[in-house]
Amino acid sequence: MKAINVLRLFSSAQLHAFHQYINCKLFNNSQILCKLFEAFVDIKLYRIKSKGIDPEKLWKSAVGNKQFNDVKFRRIISDLSALIEAFLAFEKYQNNPLETENNTMLAYYEMGLDKYFTQAERLAQEIIEKHPLRNDEFYLNLYRFKFLSNSFQIKQLHRKSTIEYAEADESLNTFYIINKLKMYCEMLNSQSVINVQYKLSQIDEIIKLVEEKSYLNIPAIHIYYLIAKTFLNTDKPYFYELKTVLQKNIRLFSLSEGKVFYSYLFNYCIRKINKGDLIFLTELFGLYQITLENKLIFEDGWLSPWDYKNMVVTALRLKEFEWTENFINNYKNTLPIKHRINAYTYNYSRLLFEKREYKNVLTMLQGVEFDDIFYSLDARALLIKTYYEMQDWITIDYVFNSFSQFLRRDKFIAENHRTNYSNFIKFTRLFCKLQLDKSKITDQILKDLYETPQIADKNWLLEKAKLLI
Q1: How close are the terminal C-alpha atoms of the chain, in Å?
Q2: Residues 6 or more apart from 52 whose CB is under 8 A from it?
Q3: pLDDT digits (tens, 9 = 90+) for 196-220
Q4: How do residues 16-45 score in pLDDT, each as one tens digit?
């Protein structure tokens, strides 16, 4: 059900706001919808997957003792979904005071209420002067404000200087260039991930315009321009310049925009690390710390379990054990509840493994059922690595068989992941045999490992192979 899927992602504040919204007669006159929403909240149905919903129970909560009617029930759910969507749009509108005031100006303009138009215009000007952000949305609303002001003056038969027209024109140009560069960066990022070539019209002219005019003085344009340059020219100066410009201007953008900007820096570091430029491990670690301090890494107050894991992996590669332990413990409660136990257990186990506390790794992993497929795969691989380091050849053989069976039987595992972990098992199993019979060790093992493209934990395997040879 759409309503369930959307409500499940609402924060506590949003649920409270929607409760007020749905009970306001300006937006909703149906008591049935009010009761249905209350049923979701009271019995925590918004936390349950759609398949676990009992339609007749919901019907009774909303409609009462009338006989259940599936068609009418679906219509009620559809009406609730429509109300939720209207609320989301209203919420966006409320969070943009400049857009709101522009629309107030437009309404007074169309009604011919000149006195009130002027009052709204003054208020909009104050909002512009105090507005904290300088993103594309700001420049679009600035253009709308300038355009409405010009239109009002023309209507009043006052001559307007060309400066006012120039300001409106410049605001529109700025909005257009920001979005064109934003699209260009997204396109370049896609091309770096999948082997597809895209073409964006007029982008060469826009790049030239940005470089020749004073547009680099506008932080949003400067940032997207530098992001594009990190794709087009992998020289380090663009990366460092982008990092500096971001740190200087990050307060001019929303948290979600800041997170996008830093994700480009993350990806640049990862591309460099994958090519063997390990100095960017330190850079990546520093970027993670910046995004934590500025709360850019969070989504509605929650830390993604994948960002949590990536930070741990990066810190451990730098042997930052104390920082990692503090991070794992201090940010545990910022993880979404359904991922918390899995994420915390795996990442703390990973820390213990890197500290060579192998018995503690086994204790930590014991009795935990990993319900997330990716954490389940990684935890099983970590178990194998732990038994290998402990040289427990008997137990590791049992884990090999169990993991192989899991890979064969679980239909939710994507084929590329199945291949990665199957190859991991194959090579680790081979290394176990060679530990027991070192006469069969040859350089071919290392060559085969290098030439195998799909393999999990390849760096660890390479390290173990070099120790064997």
Answers
A1: 57
A2: none
A3: 788 888 999 999 999 998 899 999 9
A4: 999 999 999 999 999 999 999 998 887 655
Token pair in block for residue 7: 């409500």
Rounded distance between C-alpha atoms, residue 107 and residue 117, angstroms = 8
How many CB atoms neighbour CB 456 within 10 A? Answer: 19
How many Cα atoms occupy the beta-carbon half-sphere of 396 within 13 Å?
22
* Amino acid letter, 77: I
pLDDT higher than threshold 80 for residue 138: yes
Give ∠ CA 19-21-25 in degrees, rounded to 5. 120
Place of tokens 């699209």: 183
Mean pLDDT of 271-285: 92
Q: What pLDDT was estimated at residue 46?
A: 47
> Half-sphere exposure of 243 toward its Cβ, with a 13 Å CA cutoff?
18
Structure-token match 């104050």, residue found: 126
Angle at which helices 70-94 and 12-22 pack, to 10 degrees?
110
Contact (Cβ atoms closer than 8 angstroms) between residue 305 and residue 336 = yes
Q: Who's near 55: CB < 8 A, 6+ residues apart? A: 68, 70, 73
Asked if residues 351 and 316 have their Cβ atoms less than 8 Å apart, the reply is yes
Do the beta carbons of residue 254 and residue 135 sit within 8 Å? Answer: yes
Quote the Cα angle for 305-409-51, to 5°: 60
The dihedrals phi and psi of 303, each to the nearest 5 degrees, come to -100, 125
Q: Which helix (H) or strand (E) holds 73?
A: helix 70-94
Token pair for 221? 């344009």
Distance CA 452, CA 461 (A): 12
pLDDT score recorded for residue 285: 98
Rounded alpha-carbon distances, angstroms, from residue 354 to 319, 320, 389? 8, 10, 11
pTM of the model: 0.81
